[in-house]
Design a protein that fits this description.
By secondary structure, the chain is mainly α. The chain has helices spanning 2-8, 25-43, 53-73, 82-86, 88-107, 119-128, 130-164, 166-179, 188-194, 198-223, 227-235, 240-274, 283-292, 296-324; strands at residues 9-11, 22-24. The chain has a two-stranded antiparallel ribbon with strand order 1-2.
């Protein structure tokens, strides 16, 4: 990361700019991009009137001011924040994207209403409909936690059994291969008959979508464990329980985490479908409700929230994986 900080900081007194001092280059360019987006939003007239245009311009300008302050302050720190330096180009790209987004929608009308919304349209949704959005996030969070947790627990246990027991794999693996390719939404008619409530049916759909990849990858991981590890453990007196808990499962964790990542993405893809089953709130319900009324700015606002939540969960999963698999560092697999 040292190379990043050296490449993104330059001296202005060497003829590269008109003033003297040290500046974080990416931070300066990002500030200019965000100020440009704010100027476009504030000074150019809207083709169609949108709410909170001035609020969005002030917000973007404030972020630009923060970036300008960081551009001046970061080089003077004894230990510059490497994460901030690493994401400097992304800060530039986001500012440019806001400027282009604003021009093509609100200012020039190339992407017309109601199918496309400018960024201040999304801000207007967050400011005017935040209470309903919070309720929907809570409902979706409850459904996802129950469905994803139950899915990965059952999937992990099933995967361990499939990878460890040849008899269980003989009967279970063909069934898993038969069910796996079928989209979770195809099971909706059966869920109405099996489960007494639509909420339980929704939990089942999310659990099914997240549990199958975990089961398949866990079974593959357990089945690929080096047999010599079992032989060494048996020589030291290990029983089958020890072999499963202390040898098979730890050695299969890389595959398990691949299954968890896949299950996480699949579970979010199924959330919208699962909340079609009679849900009164939830981000999936919010998407369906506003799509029916062509309120596409609300739809985009909900999609952004879902994307941010999913990205945050993926980040947490990466952190958990790095900590649990820290023993792999330096190993050649």
């Amino acid at each position: 990361m040292a190379d990043i900080s050296q490449s993104t900081i330059f001296r202005l007194d060497r003829g590269e700019a008109g003033t003297s001092g040290l500046v974080w280059r990416d931070g300066l360019l990002a500030a200019l991009a965000w100020f440009g987006a704010a100027a476009i939003t504030w000074f150019l007239p809207d083709v169609i009137v949108w709410g909170d245009t001035s609020a969005f311009a002030l917000l973007v300008a404030a972020i630009g001011a923060v970036l300008l302050g960081l551009a001046l302050a970061v080089p003077r720190l004894s230990r510059p924040p490497q994460t901030l330096l690493y994401y400097g180009p992304w800060l530039i790209a986001i500012g440019v994207w806001f400027a282009i987004w604003e021009l093509t929608t609100a200012k020039l009308g190339w992407l017309p209403k109601p199918f496309f919304s400018p960024p201040q349209g999304l801000l207007n949704v967050y400011l005017s409909d935040w209470e309903r959005l919070l309720i929907c996030v809570a409902y979706t969070g409850r459904l996802w936690i129950l469905g994803f947790t139950s899915g990965i627990v059952v999937g992990f246990a099933t995967g361990v059994a499939l990878g460890w027991s040849k008899r269980f794999a003989y009967w279970g693996m063909p069934i898993l291969k038969l069910i796996g390719p079928v989209p979770a939404s195809a099971w909706i008619p059966a869920t109405f008959f099996i489960f007494p409530t639509t909420f339980q049916a929704s939990i089942f759909l999310v659990a099914l979508a997240s549990g199958i990849p975990v089961a398949i990858l866990t079974a593959a991981g357990v089945g690929q464990v080096n047999k010599s590890l079992y032989d060494v453990a048996r020589t030291l007196g290990a029983d089958n329980r020890f072999l499963v808990l202390k040898v098979a499962i730890p050695a299969s964790l890389p595959n398990v985490f691949v299954g968890l990542f896949m299950g996480l993405y699949y579970s979010f893809a199924v959330l919208v479908v699962a909340e079609m089953l009679g849900a009164k709130f939830g981000l999936g319900w919010y998407l369906q409700f506003n799509t029916a009324y062509s309120a596409y700015s609300n739809v985009y606002a909900a999609l952004v929230i879902m994307a941010l939540i999913c990205a945050g969960l993926v980040k947490l999963l990466f952190v958990a994986r790095d900590r649990l698999l820290s023993w792999q560092k330096g190993m050649i697999l």
